[in-house]
User: What shape does this take?
Amino acid sequence: MYVERELGGKLAQLAGKFPAIYLNGPRQSGKSTLLGHVFPGHTQVNLEEPDRRSFALDDPRGFLASLGSRAVIDEAQRAPNLFSYLQTVLDSSDEPGRFVLSGSQNFLVARAVSQSLAGRVAVLTLLPFSLAELDAVGGPETAEEWMLAGGYPRLHTAGIEPRDYFPSYTATYLERDVRAETGVKDIDRFRALMGTLGSRVGSPLNLADIGRQVGADARTVGSWLNILAESYIVFTLPSWHINADKRIAKRPKLFFHDTGLLCSLLGVRNAEQLGASRVKGHVFENAVVSEAAKAFLNRGEAPRLHYLNDHDSSAEIDLVVETGSGVAVWEIKASQTANSKYATAVARFQTAVDVADRRVVYDGPDGLSQQGVPYSNWRKLPELLAALD
Assistant: This one.
């Protein structure tokens, strides 16, 4: 079952302008399926196949010559030496859309792409299904189902239960991406770090404190955190302030790209358990922030997302989105009840920058407003995010 991806249009558009495209994203986010759909006339090769990989590693010139004039190379990070040779091929012709590359381990290819293909390649990121894409496969009925399942395509298209999908996904990620490709030997402690980060979603990062909990120094935690970020497991949300220096002074908050994986790491096995759990609010905030990140990336743009914690004005706002017409300020609550205190910080927020949108995103009904701030159900996120340019 093919699900139309929101990134598909941007992918095709840029392939008409750049000689090479690099599509990155986590394992099993649907990169190969999308590329096969958008570029059906290209030669398709996957470097996970041992014979293909050996050919690319041993004879990169011969490998590229065998592909013809247009090709899709999946899991290109498996042969990073290709990028230097690809530069020579692309220099011989600037015809757009010649080579389309994909990869799931950004730490292996980011430098190669920037050094070898600078100016020749457009870089895009494909994350798991957005809410709009989930609607094509039935969509979640409740917020708990949305958070518990997350958006990894195969889980939805093959009808796999989250409790069956994510342990295998995590084990594969740890063995293939972490142990085999990064040289991390202490996989048990790395796994413990993932669980610890899950329990701290939505909180400012404190590497030393996390290190004490998992038994590693802050430098090691920072290194492992970079691996998780560059393989699209986690991302950080920087602080926002009209003064750029004050933004830098604040610690970023940590989130997971997929709440299904987050719930699995937290030991949440079903929607009922999540609904009664004390972590529900944090997971809900993660789900909304992740959805906002997907909206930008699916337009081919870097997310312009922040949080606000300004002790000078006692202002705390979960999500600040920089738009072309100012900033949007959103409070995020898992509650089904429109408590008036949720709108207080958003209503009082004042800045020299124009406020393009004030809103509470929650699990209750649409159409309510308090202190001049509208309350919107999470199901409206695709529409709300599309309006933030």
